[in-house]
Design a protein that fits this description.
mainly alpha; HTH_67; SalK
């Protein structure tokens, strides 16, 4: 029987695993691979690689499952992107980009190490407890085959764990009655979310949209006149994460306290190496 998890152990593990999954979104390797199949627009590439596991879906499905993008931006590229490259072609290009990105960021020794193989085994074991019910992005990726190479198997498991938690998080946002941009504004106000510049540059929202969302949040008592979280806003963000933890507990409870601790250690090491290699753009996180 697995021992009980320490408080927030699952969240700490997620926070170590998830960013390595995300590295390919910022990678020149992804841009190169997508351009090679005819998809040169950055937004079109993002929508395609993340949605491809669901098949040639329309804009409505992407907006619903991605949550915080302006639907007008999504509709500009979806479903048109599938006329450029099929989901199967996109998934193959994504796999090549992930492979190249991890090789560049971590180096061949790390990819061939026993630590990488162990991380893959632990992460995949955690995914055994994930359920497809009401988890569309997780369920779509869970139907994809597990790669043979340990580093790609680890990345695949990280993707499953990321999308599983993300699907649950959207349910929590809906219950809190935060619309897509309000969710982004409050997350940015914590200092842990994307900066306004990055939100407006990647999610399709305008400054007017941002200001209107800020005003709605002020009217609910969640932001103050300076755009900072009030006590109520801080409590709401804390509750959002707690409720998300509750919906995300199954894979980590299945792995057990010792497994979670070890996976967090391994994932943290890989993440630090990726960050040191310049995996993420400067200025992406913060309030300014």
């Amino acid at each position: 029987m697995n021992s009980p998890l320490p408080e927030r152990a699952a969240r700490r593990c997620h926070n170590a695993i998830n960013p390595l999954h995300s590295t390919h979104y910022f990678s020149p390797d992804l841009a190169k691979e997508m351009a090679g199949i005819g998809i040169e627009d950055r937004n079109a590439a993002y929508f395609a690689v993340r949605a491809a596991a669901m098949g040639p879906v329309g804009a409505g499905t992407v907006t619903a499952t991605f949550y915080n993008f302006n639907h007008e931006l999504v509709a500009r590229h979806v479903p048109a992107v599938w006329r450029i490259a099929s989901p199967e072609t996109v998934l193959a290009a994504r796999a090549r980009a992930v492979d190249a990105t991890l090789r560049r960021l971590l180096g061949k020794e790390a990819l061939a190490s026993e630590e990488m193989a162990e991380a893959a085994r632990l992460a995949l074991r955690a995914t055994e407890a994930c359920s497809r019910t009401a988890r569309p992005l997780y369920a779509a990726h869970a139907d994809l085959p597990v790669p043979e190479e340990p580093h790609l198997a680890y990345w695949h498991a990280a993707t499953l764990l990321r999308e599983y938690r993300g699907d649950g998080h959207l349910a929590v946002l809906l219950a809190a009655e935060l619309d897509p941009l309000e969710a982004l504004v409050t997350h940015t106000a914590t200092g842990k979310g994307m900066s306004p510049k990055w939100v407006l540059g990647t999610r399709g929202w305008s400054r007017q949209d941002w200001d209107a969302a800020t005003e709605r949040l002020r009217s609910r008592g969640l932001l103050d006149v300076d755009g900072e979280l009030t006590d109520a806003g801080t409590a709401l963000r804390r509750d959002l994460e707690t409720q998300t933890d509750r919906l995300d507990r199954a894979p980590y409870e299945h792995l057990g306290a010792a497994g979670v601790e070890r996976l967090t250690e391994l994932a943290g090491g890989f993440l630090m190496a990726a960050v040191a290699a310049g995996a993420f753009p400067a200025g992406m996180i913060g309030k300014n």
